[in-house]
Design a protein that fits this description.
- This protein has five helices and two strands.
- It has two domains: 81 residues, no CATH class; 50 residues, no CATH class.
- The chain has 157 residues and is mainly α.
């Protein structure tokens, strides 16, 4: 049977979700459809159910249709999950802001105050920067930040 529109069906082999912040990619999620398809199609017939349909075209259309529906369902779940995770990200942001505020109360808000602290502790600005980012990224609760700084400054390097 001839088909007026004999363009070859092409379906993407990968769906990629890229997350950007200020135009810069910060992460991505890849779904390799070539790897997913055998999982979906396992134990199913490998030919079209009717003789008059080209089996290659049938497989291509079936794959495209099934994958389109799968992506649509995933999108629904992704938005729901993303909404939940956005709330957690907002809480992370608030927590990090509180940590910065705690550091500002202990170490000061100006460059002069920080320079004085660094000189008094016989450290460098790079040492403080390393300490600060360790503190920011550490998920444990720090009770006495000044004590942590002094302990951090005495550890072997």
């Amino acid at each position: 049977m001839s088909h007026p529109n004999s363009k070859k069906e092409s379906s993407p082999s990968e769906v990629r979700l890229v997350v950007e912040v200020d135009g810069n990619p910060v992460g991505s999620l890849n779904l390799d459809l070539t790897r997913l398809w055998p999982l979906i199609k396992h134990q199913k017939r490998d030919h079209s159910p009717v003789e008059w349909m080209d089996s290659t075209k049938f497989d291509s259309i079936m794959r495209a249709t099934v994958m389109k529906r799968l992506m649509s369902r995933l999108e629904t779940h992704l938005y729901r999950t993303l909404g939940d995770e956005m709330v957690k990200a907002e809480l992370d942001l608030e927590s990090l802001n509180l940590k910065v505020e705690a550091a500002a109360q202990v170490f000061g808000r100006t460059n002069a105050e920080l320079e004085k602290l660094v000189l008094e502790s016989d450290s460098t600005p790079m040492d403080f920067s390393a300490f600060f980012w360790d503190y920011m990224l550490d998920e444990r609760e720090v009770i006495d930040l000044k004590k942590e700084w002094k302990a951090w400054g005495t550890r072997p390097r």
